[in-house]
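ok new one. same drill as before - structure tokens go in, u give me an amino acid for every spot. 197 of them this time. try not to just spam alanines like last time pls lmao
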């Protein structure tokens, strides 16, 4: 992807060919901020997606990164932005090397892990399901008025890390150094059977 535009517009793609099969990896190239939009009614399955620096995704339709049995990853360097009002399914991991602004009003399903370095911002008013672990670095900001379900562990760093949660946030475990973060995450507690009759 070399410029801003709709995913189905061949003019935004190097070589004029739209990525629409799992064998095709997507790279945001050429520097500078650019946004690719998957429009409502469109459904694509692709390979790995690399936002590079300043790459932005707007998903109003449906985007599958990978497929069942063929996991692929979404990666970003600096200042990326992912806005999902449709459906995004990542069959591998989300890997962020520095900052990412992530806004979910639709549905996001991540079959692997979420690994975000520092200064990540996550706002959820829709549904986010992470089958693996959620790891955030220092200054991780999470605002949730929707539903977040993490199958594995939640671990975040310190600094200005915070969670504002007026929705539902569940996880297998939570162990950040940031004060107050885990107090807003529902973690299953052990139950001991005292006797059986």
């Amino acid at each position: 992807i070399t410029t801003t535009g709709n995913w189905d517009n061949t003019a935004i793609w190097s070589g004029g060919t739209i990525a629409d099969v799992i064998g095709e990896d997507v790279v945001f190239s050429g520097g500078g901020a650019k946004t690719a939009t998957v429009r409502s009614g469109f459904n694509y399955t692709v390979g790995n997606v690399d936002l590079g620096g300043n790459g932005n995704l707007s998903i109003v339709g449906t985007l599958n990164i990978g497929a069942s049995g063929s996991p692929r990853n979404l990666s970003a360097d600096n200042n990326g932005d992912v806005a999902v009002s449709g459906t995004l399914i990542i069959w591998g991991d989300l890997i962020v090397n520095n900052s990412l602004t992530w806004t979910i009003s639709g549905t996001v399903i991540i079959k692997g892990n979420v690994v975000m370095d520092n200064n990540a911002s996550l706002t959820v008013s829709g549904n986010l399901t992470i089958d693996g672990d959620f790891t955030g670095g220092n200054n991780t900001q999470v605002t949730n008025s929707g539903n977040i379900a993490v199958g594995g562990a939640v671990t975040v760093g310190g600094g200005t890390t915070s969670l504002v949660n007026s929705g539902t946030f569940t996880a297998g475990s939570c162990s950040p150094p940031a004060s107050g973060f885990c107090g807003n995450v529902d973690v299953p507690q052990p139950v001991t059977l005292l006797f059986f009759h």
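The longest strand covers residues 147-156. and btw The CA atoms of residues 60 and 72 lie 20 Å apart.
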